[in-house]
Amino acid sequence: MPEIRFAGYGGQGIIRSGIIVGKAVSIYDNKFGTMSQSFGPEARGGACSSQLVVADSKVLYPYITVSDILVAMSQEGYEKFEPELSENGVLLMDEDLVKPKPQRGQIKVFAIPATRFAEQLGRKIVANVVMLGFFTAVTDVVSYDAMKKTIPSTVPEKAVDLNLQAFDTGYEYGKKRMENA
């Protein structure tokens, strides 16, 4: 039953990331998922996070106690939530935005230049979806097919193709990373 936290700042799609994974696991992967979110008073630029608990049976407690997976898309998000990451958890981070401190325990770190890839695709705003592709490839939380089915219903219609391309960019990068791990 992985407990997952997406952390970053307002405007990066952190809340939407939790919604997308939550819908994908619940609707298409036949798992149970709960999602909650928190954000500061600022609409854009303030710290925010979404928390997701995924299980094969009903989730009895919908909030994270200790994160198994931390997806950090900002330095502030990393610094705030890394202490809550399990000693043998998984850290996924945007390597251009997060500079991690020396790791404790057996934490596995996987980095991707998500924002840089999004900029290369022409829209920085899809960095979260690049990260979701990477997340899908690196973890066993959600299937590729479930994510590909969910993304079109959770992003603006005019941006579906770009978001699917962003997802595949992150996914392919993650698959290559895992082959070399």
From TrEMBL:
<dbReference type="Pfam" id="PF01558">
    <property type="entry name" value="POR"/>
</dbReference>
<dbReference type="InterPro" id="IPR052554">
    <property type="entry name" value="2-oxoglutarate_synth_KorC"/>
</dbReference>
<dbReference type="InterPro" id="IPR019752">
    <property type="entry name" value="Pyrv/ketoisovalerate_OxRed_cat"/>
</dbReference>
<keyword id="KW-0670">Pyruvate</keyword>
<dbReference type="GO" id="GO:0016903">
    <property type="term" value="F:oxidoreductase activity, acting on the aldehyde or oxo group of donors"/>
</dbReference>
<feature type="domain" description="Pyruvate/ketoisovalerate oxidoreductase catalytic">
    <location>
        <begin position="10"/>
        <end position="172"/>
    </location>
</feature>
<dbReference type="InterPro" id="IPR002869">
    <property type="entry name" value="Pyrv_flavodox_OxRed_cen"/>
</dbReference>
<keyword id="KW-0560">Oxidoreductase</keyword>
<protein>
    <submittedName>
        <fullName>Pyruvate ferredoxin oxidoreductase</fullName>
    </submittedName>
</protein>
